[in-house]
Amino acid sequence: MKSNATFFQRRVTPSRLGRIFAAGLLALIGFTGHLLYTSVSVWAQDEKSDGRATRASGADSLVPFVSIGRGTASRIVDPLEIVIQSEQELRDFWTQHVQSDSLPPLVDFATDLVAGIFAGQRPTAGYQVEIVRIDRNRAGIHVIYQIKNPPKDAVVAQVFTQPFHLIRLPRLNLPIQFKRL
In angstroms, rounded to a whole number, what is the distance separating the alpha carbons of residues 65 and 115? Predict the structure, then answer.
């Protein structure tokens, strides 16, 4: 019968050390690659000049936009589609939206405005709001969004959530409408 002391005192030979080092190096390379991939994909989504946006029927052009806030915790508990056109409107709205004393994002309202979708309070985690694209045509601007539900077989936290997505887009002096996919 071996004692515990001899079990843990195995010799580390140079070849064994090399295998351990190689395994650790491969794990580090894989993890770094994963971080790089997710960083690039998040950056591409946030900048919204992404290639997955396609021109919808009736759209003359796509309008670029930048995400300035997205999450599942808001004090806005009723569904809301909002367009904010001034710094004062943004400050007033921000105090209703956030649960802290944080400052609203910087927006140059001379050239840009803010649009947002709030799904309202949901009974569990797993819900998401995403503004997919913005179409521009002669009639105006159409903010196209979707609200994603958690999969039916998903195990989700039993907490109230308030999914939302806020974006900054160019001020184009056209009427803005929201369309849910």
Answer: 10
